Amino acid sequence: MSPTHPHDELATPVGTTLERYIMRKQAEFPFATGELSQLLRDIALASKIMVREVGRAGLNSIAEAVGPEGEQGPPRHRLGEEAHIRFVRALTNGGECCAVLSEARPDLIDTGNHDGKYVVALNPLNGSVSLDFNVSTGTIFSIYRRVSRYGGPARAEDFLQGGRAQVAAGYILYGSSTMLVYTTGHGVAGFTYEPSLGEFFLSHPELTIPKQGSVFSCNEGNWFDFPEFARTFLTTCKERRYTARYVGSLAADYHRNLFTGGIYIYPPTGEWPSGKLRLLYECYPIAFVTEQAGGVAVTGADDVLDVPPTQDLHQRMPLFVGSAELVRELQAVAAA
Ligand code: F6P
Description:
Elements: H1 18-27, H2 35-55, E1 65-67, E2 76-77, H3 78-94, E3 97-102, E4 109-110, E5 118-126, E6 137-145, H4 156-159, E7 168-174, E8 178-183, E9 188-194, E10 199-204, E11 215-217, H5 228-239, E12 243-244, H6 250-260, E13 263-266, E14 277-278, H7 279-292, E15 296-298, E16 316-317, E17 319-322, H8 324-335
Parallel strand pairs: 3-5, 11-12, 11-13
Antiparallel strand pairs: 1-2, 3-4, 5-6, 6-7, 7-8, 8-9, 9-10, 13-17, 14-16, 15-17
Helix pairs in contact: 2-3, 5-8
The chain binds 6-O-phosphono-beta-D-fructofuranose.
6-O-phosphono-beta-D-fructofuranose (F6P) binds at residues 126-127, 219, 248-250, 253, 276-277, 282.
């Protein structure tokens, strides 16, 4: 119940900060060294800086494209570039991360922390093409424990262990409020940013996605390129009078469906015959969060987390993700 008298606010507990939550979780694992906790803090720190920058995007007119095509495909924006720099810097300064794979760069970034145990794959600012228009954007991240020898630089194999080897994954959504959602494989927790205090507070301790839903999210402009099974499934959604919702920013579309129930769809298209989304820093982390929230993520036939990566660090993959029953239904149509 919301307070009715101004003084009643004093009776409301402050709540659990992300910092305290991380510490508490760490204490549940007696052998934890605290390095993963520190790494999560570094990600949170960079995201706080990005909250500030994203909020000023229009004001500073700094959201224009830096080039017609980014190195990795879609046009990049200065804020996308800034997000890349902020996250890499925070992870470098933190010391636990020995290498970063970023959507904004073709090659691995060696942080110089050669004793660091972890590597981080991230899309620093997805949906940034829409930043000029105040559309929600997000950062998506995936963390692995390295398999290469400590003391030297990380190698591609550290990032190519497969989705089930992720030790943590999540995203930050810069929306009407900013939320950080992550998992370490023990459920999913969501934190909402309180700008006046500069803190993330635990707002959703155990996030679960409804088993069924009636929202479908896809770029229907690609309809004539969609494979037959996707069109058949979407036609069923329409016959059932489901609701179409599509922002065009994975973190935003995914986040909404996580709460309402629904399915996000990015099948192969003419332009993107292998799917558009990146396996290592979009599909795998979103699939990890989804499974931990009780949902399902498939590439069509297979569960995303079971699909082995190729040697391509920026590999693309079709993605169908959301409420378990809806996604399994789509999978059955794909298999028929
Ligand atoms: O990262 C790729 C991405 O920008 C996603 O965030 C988003 O869901 C999708 O591409 C949008 O693609 P399209 O513009 O083709 O609908």
